[in-house]
Amino acid sequence: MMRFALIALSLTALAACNSEITSEIYDGEFGNSTMNNTQIQSGDISAQMALTSRFASEVPDTITFAFNSAVLDGAAQATLRRQADWIRQFPEVRFAVYGHTDLVGSNGYNQALGLRRAKAVVAFFASQGISRSRLEALVSYGKTQPVVLTDQPEQRNRRTVTQVSGFVNRHPSLLNGKYAAVIFREYVEGAVPPHPESDAIQTELNPGQ
Hints:
CATH architecture: 2-Layer Sandwich
Organism: Fertoeibacter niger
Oligomer: single chain
Keywords: Cell outer membrane, Membrane, Signal
Distance between the termini: 106 Å
Signal peptide: 1-15
Mean pLDDT: 76
Low-confidence stretches: 14-37, 198-209
Strand content: 5-15%
Structural class: alpha+beta
Number of domains: 1
Domain OmpA-like: 52-168
Radius of gyration: 27 Å
Number of helices: 8
Number of strands: 4
Order of helices and strands: HHHEHEHEEHHH
Pfam family, one: OmpA
Largest sheet: 4 strands, mixed
């Protein structure tokens, strides 16, 4: 009888241990790791975020504008050339350009001004040999997302931001699920020969050279 009692006690203790272990391990998210891995491998998540982070860390993603202007000055063009060099080396990737303004003026006017700025950037990319088909629909946030909260003219608010927005549909290198190869491809700054327009502008800036 004692033997059966010990066996029953052991089984009860084992059941209690299993219950405690299960309550610590199971958090109601069983299968999420498998689901996330599948989504990552299929490019549904993380791939775009990884490339967005890379783009912002390797080239400046923002340019600024003069007050009430959508004209690209020399500094803006220099930054956009660096962006264009990066974009050309990742032909599988799509981009979006977001236009912003400062808080001076009406909502409607600033919405249109932000769009003109975004269009100016897209036109510049096209002049650098980048297909417009790789650029998502242009977006203007107008004055709704200021960097500096002031109702006075502020250059840091008058900007466009270029961001990775996704992947080119049915691009050959993505059909086999090679998102990792795209994300970790080496970007070599200056590997792409400068656009002829660069030489013309440099001559204008330094006519004696």
